[in-house]
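Input chain follows. Return structure tokens only.
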Amino acid sequence: MMASGFTAKDEDGRVSVSGAGGGSLLSRKPDNTAFKQQRLPAWQPILTAGTVLPAFFFISLVFIPIGVGLFVTSKNIKEFQIDYTGDDMSSPCFNCSQNISWNSTRPCTCSIPFHLDQPYESNVLMYYGLSNFYQNHRRYVKSRDDNQLNGNIDSLTKPSKDCEPYAFYENKPIAPCGAIANSMFNDTLELFYIEPNGTKTRIPLKKMGIAWPTDKHVKFKNPGGNNQNLTAVFQGTSKPANWHKSVYELDTDPDNNGFINEDFIVWMRTAALPTFRKLYRIIENKNDAAVPTLPQGNYTLEVVYNYLVRSFDGRKRVILSTISWMGGKNPFLGIAYITVGSICFFLGVVLLIIHYKYGKCSSSTEIPS
């Protein structure tokens, strides 16, 4: 025997079903509102030749000049690259690349002569570049302790598990811990200008100001404050396995030592692609427009070869580059703007021809009597 029941509708239009047991069940009918019943006002543009064609030509008119400007600006940026991997027997760094190891105590030095065909004005940025190095690997990116790098004392003695297996060495906590810090680039690069009379002049390289200010002053701090005695602060910790120095020996300048060392900070900002460059030094202009920062002529790059790349078939290079208002040399953005603008112009012309040829055809037909 079926239980009797009744239905009721509330003020919002919802229907409820009640049974003999006193229970009620709301129906699945949506509320009678403009949103749920899809009665909201909407704007649906009608695409016509009068609206589409001007849009295509306007985009091409804007994008192509911007792209040309970006491309010309990038083209005017001067850049010079020096590969010093040393995999070729004719390379000055060949012996170093074959004989050096991570645990070597005696440094290996090599000199690479090169020639600049044109002078470099304004400030010149000196980068080091690596190839086939995947800093974007998931486990590699996670292998760090941000609390430790931010000066947390507890994280200094008890590193995060994300740093494993680079968290402890001989029962001592590693500072800084993790795979990123352990693989830090540690070649030393120096640049010399060869005067016409053969005199060798060292080019001054600025090591401060290469890291992002937010990293330098917010994300990275020494435990107990940056003005503490770092030797005492890091006592009881161990250096990363591949480092030749402890973290408190990276620099003699207290504003560039420990976790706030700018070379270290630059390395800890991982790259997105396997071929990348990182800022190493800045060659500042002497505020004399008549004297170029790097004059045309012969130079020598002296390298203390410490960083091994043979294990992952990588390559090392040094890049000297000027900068502009848009940054370093990169023609991609200008080419992208020119390409999009050219495609829009081509489509606009094609659609204009189609509209001119078929858009005015009469649709009237003669009805037979």
